[in-house]
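Readers of this paper often ask what the protein records in our data store actually look like. Such a record has a labelled line for the sequence and another for the backbone structure tokens. Nothing more is needed to write down the fold, since each code stands for a local backbone conformation. The remainder of this section carries one protein's record, kept here as part of the documentation.
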Amino acid sequence: MNLFKKIFVMGVFAVASGFWPVSGFCAGPKEDVFETNLFQTIEISSFAINPEKLTKLTAVDKKDLLLAKDVLRRFFISLDDSDGNYNQYLSPAFFAGKTLNRQDIRKKIIADETDLLKIGITNFDFNGNRKTVVFDFYAIVYVEGVFSLGEGKAQLEKHTGSWNISGITINRP
């Protein structure tokens, strides 16, 4: 089974297992432990990545990967929040000299009237000097009553100790 099909199957299981909370897609933190436990996604299997690639990582590499992933996570959360400061996660290279507002960025990445529900990292690559990382990821989106699975790439660059997104795309079938 190729990677995309495996991701799709996992996405279907995530949705079927109750990924869609009763209170809606944009539900905030849950107070009710029962509801949280009932609608939490269930991981069936994880992605197979070359174990040699992981064993070659230094402690600094591992820390940087987790920090970069957290920037990606916080960016998507802030982009979805009308009061969120999504710009703090973007590098000047992302804008390429253009002024982009929240709606422009959402259109560029996930399209209008689309809810991004979940992302998961499937692969990563550092550049030679370890100042740029590219994540491959899957995205589960909801648009016009239909769940869809897409593949994405995010490039993050490290400047003065912080990671910022310099490019991001999500392709949906």
Remarks:
- The beta strands are 114-126, 132-143, 146-159, 162-171.
- The first helix runs from residue 3 to 19.
- Helices lie at 3-19, 33-39, 51-55, 59-80, 92-95, 102-109.
